[in-house]
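User: If only I could read C-alpha cells as easily as an amino acid sequence. Underneath my words sits a plain record pairing an amino acid chain with its C-alpha cells. This is the protein in question:
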Amino acid sequence: MVRRNVFAIVLLVGLVAAGSLTLTAAEENHEHSHDDDAIHEVKNVNVTIFNETMQEPDAFVLDVRSEEEFNKGHIEGAVRITSNELPNRDGELPKDKEAPVLVYCNSGRRSADVANTLLFMGYENVMNLEPGIKGWVKAGMPVV
C-alpha cells in the first residue's frame, strides 16, 4: 500500500513538473517568436466535437482506462493504453505530432492527465473528452 502511494505521489509530481516545463518552454518560445502561433494546450471537448474530430482520417482515439473497463465497452477503433503503459507503448501513438489525438477515460479526469503528458511528448492537437465515456454513452453514442 505504501509503495502504491509513493508511486502515485511520484507520478503526480512528475505530471505537475511536466506541465510546468511545458508551459515555461511554450512561454519562452512565444516571447522570442513574432508569429501568432498559439501555445498548444489540451482542448476539453464535448461529445459532439469529439465525434466530429474522430471522423478526420488521421484522428487517433486513445482510451486510457483499465482493460476491465475497456472490455465493458469502448469507442470503436480506440486504442487502449493506460498512463502507466504510455512510456513503453509510445510507438503505438501517431508519428505525426500534429494529428488529432482524442483521449478519453470514464469521466475525463485520467484522460486529462494523459492528455497533458501527450502535450509534453510533443503532440500539438490533443483533445480530452471532458464527460468521458459516461457522457458519450449518456449522449446515445455507440460503444463496442
In short: Residues 2-32 form the longest helix (31 residues).
